[in-house]
Amino acid sequence: MRKLLIxxxxxxxxxxxxxxxxxxxxxxxxxxxxxxxETLAFHxxxxxxxxxxxxxxxxxxxxxxxxxxxxGHFYAEYLYRCSRVVSVGIQADAEGxxxxxxxxxxxxxxxxxxxxxxxxxxxxxxxxxxxxxRRPMVRLYSGLGAGSVFAFxxxxxxxxxxxxxxxxxxxxxxxxxxxxxxELGMLNSLSDPYHIYQAGSRLISFGAYYKW
Length: 212
Known about the structure:
Elements: H1 2-18, E1 26-33, H2 36-41, E2 61-70, E3 73-81, E4 86-105, E5 115-134, E6 138-153, E7 158-174, E8 178-192, E9 195-201, E10 204-211
Antiparallel strand pairs: 1-3, 1-10, 2-4, 3-4, 4-5, 5-6, 6-7, 7-8, 8-9, 8-10
C-alpha cells in the first residue's frame, strides 16, 4: 500500500515539476536610441571665410558654435506585468550634446578663449505598455510614458520641463530570462515654446532585457 501511494504521488508530481515556469512579472531593460532631431536642431554655425573680408569693418566679429558631438539616448526601464496585456513601470533616459563656442574676426580667426559646452538632458517618466500579440518567442507591444525633463550644462544652467514618449510599436524577441527588443517611437520634451529639448526624438531604439 505504501509503495502504491509513493507511486501515485510521483505520477501526480511529475507533470508539475516538469512544467515550464510561468513568465516572470518583472522586466529590467536597457538600450540606446538615435538622436536624429538633435543632430538637425543643434548643429554648427561656422560660416567659413568670407569672400571679401577686407570690405568688412575691422571691428567685425561673429560668435559661432562648432565641433558638435552627440551621445545618443541611453535608457533604462523597469516594468511590472499586471496582466498578459498591461505592464506598468518607470523609465530613465539620458543624452548628451557637446559643442564649442568662440568669437571669430573678419578673417575667421578665433579672437578669444574657446569655450567647451557640455549639455545633458535627463528624462524620468512613469510608463505603461500594452502587449497585443504574445507568442513563445515574439511579443508585439505599444506604450506611452509621461514625466519630467531636466536640462543642465557645465555653465550651471538648469531648466525643468515636461516630457511625453509615444511608443508606436515595439518588437520583443526572446524566451526565458534574456532577450532583445527594437522600438519605433517619439520622445518629446520642452519647458516652454522657446525651450524645446526633444521633438520626435529617439525615433528608433534597441535594447536588451532580463525577466524574472
